[in-house]
Structure formats: C-alpha cells, structure tokens
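Re: the multi-chain job from yesterday

Posting the exact lines I submitted so nobody has to dig through the queue logs.
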Amino acid sequence: MLEDLFDKVKFRMGSDKKEQRPATMEVPSDLLFKCPRCQQVVFMDQFEQNCKVCAACGYHSRISAKERLEITVDNQSFHEYDSGMRSKNPIGFEGYEEKLQEMRSLTGLDDAVITGECRIMGEQCVIGVMDSRFMMASMGSVVGEKIARAFERAADKNLPVVLFTASGGARMQEGIIGLMQMAKTSGAVARHGEKGLLYITVLTDPTTGGVTASFASLGDIILAEPKVLVGFAGRRVIENTIQQRLPDDFQSAEFLLEHGFVDKIVTREEMRKTLADLLKIHYKGGGCCE
Amino acid sequence: MNELTAWERMGLIRQKTRPTVREYIPMIFDSFIEFHGDRHFGDDPAIVGGVGWFDGTPVTVIGQVKGRNLEENKTTNFSMPHPEGYRKALRLMKQAEKFHRPVICFIDTPGAYCGIGAEERGQGEAIAQNLAQLMRLKTTVISIVLGEGGSGGALALGVCDELAMLENATYSIISPRGFASILWKDASREREAANRMRMTAEDLVELGVAERIIREAPGGAHRNPVLTAEYISGYIRSALGRTRGLSMEELLEKRYGKFRKLGQFTLPE
Ligand SMILES: [Zn+2]
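And the result, structure tokens for all chains:
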C-alpha cells in the first residue's frame, strides 16, 4: 500500500506543470499555500499534488512524519519502536501536561519523533522522522530517549540509521532535562559510530538549535532538502544581536552546502533512491585490507 | 544551606568582582601554560586552555572566560565562544587523551555566540562534535560551573564524569529572560522564570544533572577568591580520586550512563 502511495506521489510530481492561476483575495486562506521562502501564493491542492514542494522556487515544505514514512519506506516494512512513550513534566512546568495533551489530539502523535525499523528499496535500516507539528519538534525526554534507543538498537543489530531531522531545538518546558537530551543523543550516535555503522542525517525544514548542535550535525553523511532552514541560532536572535537584517538565503541548505556542512542537497523526488544507494554502498564494507 | 533564590544568585554571579577562570587558574594549578588556536580558523579568547600541574599530576585545563570590565569583555566576547573556541577546546581534549591527562573544564558562559560568522563556521556542528567526542574521550573529565551555565554553549564543556556547581552558580537551558519571552511572551517575567526553571546547584543535584556542590566563601566567591579556590581544589582532588580506580571501559560506561538516565517519560504497560 505504501509502495502504491509512493508511486502515486511520483506520478503526481511529474504531472504538475499546470497553469498557475493568480491568487485573489476572495479565496479562503486555508485553500492557499504561501511559500515562506519566495512568498509566492499557490492553491493548496496544486501544492499538495507537487509533494508539497513550491513550484516557483523549489522550497520543500514541511510534511508530517507519517507522510514522510509513506514516501520513504517500503510497503509494510515499517515496525515502530517505543510507540506510546509519553513525557512527564520534569521541572513541573505549569501547563505542560495540557500542552502535550493538546498536541497529541492535534497531531495523533505521542511526541515529536517516530522511530522504528524499515526497508528502503530493500535496504534494511533503523529510521527516525521528526514531526514539526508537535511543539515545533522540540527535543525533550521522549525525543531524546527514542533517538538514543534507536541508535542503541541499531548498534545491537548492526544496522545503519537514517534520521529525518526537524526541530526548533531543545524543549524549554523540560528545562535542564531538555538540554541534557543533546548529550544523551550525541553519546548514543558516537557509540553506534564506533561499531563502524553508518548514520545518515537528512536535514528538513526547520532544523535548528539544540538538535543542530547535537545529533543532526553528526551524520557520516549529511543530506538536506532544498531551501530548508538549518541553523544554530534563531534568525531574529542574530538580527537583534548584530542589529542588521540578514540575507534571505542565510541558514538555508544552500548556505550550509557552500560553507561545508552538508554533503549533498537532494530533492524530495530523488531522496528515496539516494538513501537506498547510500545504504547499499555501505552494506558490504570497503575492499580495503581487513 | 544557601538561602538565596535563583534570581538573587544570578545577581550575585553577574557582579563584576566575581572571580573568573583566569583568576582561579593560578590559584589552583601550578605552572599553567596556555595554548592557542583551533588549527583551522583562529584563536577564540572566549575560551582559555592549556596544561598545568595539579597536586603533582599533569592536567589539561579549559575554561570560558568572563571579563571583569567592558574592555576585557570586548576581548572575550562576554564569554560567548565562537565555533573556533569549541574546536580549540576539543583539540586540547584530544591532546589530553593522547597524553593521559585528566581534563578539568570550567563553565562560565551565557551561551554560545549567535552571529553570522558563528553560523558560517558551524556553531551547531562544533558543539555537537564536542558532545559526541567528550562522551567517548578516553581520559577523566571533570566539569565545574563557576557562574553562569548557559545552554548548549555550556554543555559543550559539560559532558563529563562528574559535574560540580559552585554554590551560587546556575545552569539552564536558556536564560530566564529567553524562557519568559518564549513561553510566556513576556520577557519582563524573567525573575519569575529564574525561580521556576530549577537552575540552582541544589536543583541540578536533585534532578541528577550535577553530582556535587562546591561551597563558596561566606557571602559569595568574590568576598574571598583564595578561600573559594581552596574549596575548588579540594573538590578536584576528591573527584580525581573517585575516578582513579576505574578501568577505561568502566569510566566511559559510567559517563554515558550518567547522561543516559536523564529524561522522564512513561511507556504503556
Ligand atoms: Zn517558493
């Protein structure tokens, strides 16, 4: 079924070169998509047909973790890890439980990441996908624990890891415990790496703060979708610090590529094949002396 | 028992007279020799690093440098390191590993610097590398928060075998001002935020983030830096003693375990 979905998506991606009707004011805004990168407004159904990629500038907009899995993993190959894991309230922050409850009903997720095992065009791997709809995919206890467990299980089973990152950073509501997830996840990545296993990061929109400053930057191979926002500090924080406006492409995937922090920018259409190729080339190990 | 609130402690540690790592180093270590540069881009004066002797043992010392006046702060960028600062720290940590020296880190920063150059040179990548490499560094790492422990910029020197806090030091995910402004959309509630964020030494020990609290001279470290330095030395001595008997494997397992257990969640039955 997932396979079919992917084919449908691919089919749609090739067939979107229709006329772009100019958006008018009478159209309700939920029928329109305004590209955050080029500000172009298009009809939502057109935009969805194009895999949620802006036809004007190529910006790859946010998609849910479920949508991501559907276009990435092989049909019925996904087995979820740690389903139902929920955060407690480590610093007793008022309103946090309610906020989590609200997010759960809004997204149908327990927290901001889904992890598990799957195959991508036949290649077996552990996969994690963050979902920016859940509190901007900030990293608290659950994201930290699920990512750490994913790397530990991959290390036990000698499997590579593919992570699609998206995050506003460490989760403020969990205070210092939120911050400590950076150390925990980075440690798990390092231990997995020491076993000679592959870790591929795919940076998606937006990847910032404590996630950029931990596991998102630690991939053996770092891919990014075009035009997505990736950075450490928030744009407004920097603008306030330096008292000047930043150029539009600042902290884009292309900016990172130019400065040497991304291996390759890969479009949504090519991602699945690229991941499968990379998994395959690492599967056997090199021909170098044992 | 320290009766001050988190907010009052913040006032105390921001005093210009509070001793900085530059003042403590000669009081705690013998014959300190400073090293410079990350070997890639430059030298970041926001981080000091080098080698010295502690009780007759060679050690590597790394610390974030607060200035005591505007002039000094211009040089050290108010103790907000750039990527090259973190990369210098990592270079010296790897050097310590090679020569089997314990690493003593002093944390005192509002956070990693947020600016164009910092982004261009990969602030996130620099911090991430420190976290991952420190977790696996094959030598003892002791970290001490002297004043302000601000976010990932502090954590980049804080992945360690033991974390200690000076009794008035704070350690938090973001400044109380940032916390109030993001979560309550009202930066003016920073005092309330400070007192709710659980950022004092006692809070951190209770939450399992820090192991020890180092007392300061009565009235605060600035009242008697020499006495406070003696307390810090006493702590380092005992901390090094605690790690000395462990095998490398035990040390690294224990270090990972210390961070691995941080997080509070439930799973369905
Ligand atoms: Zn666009």
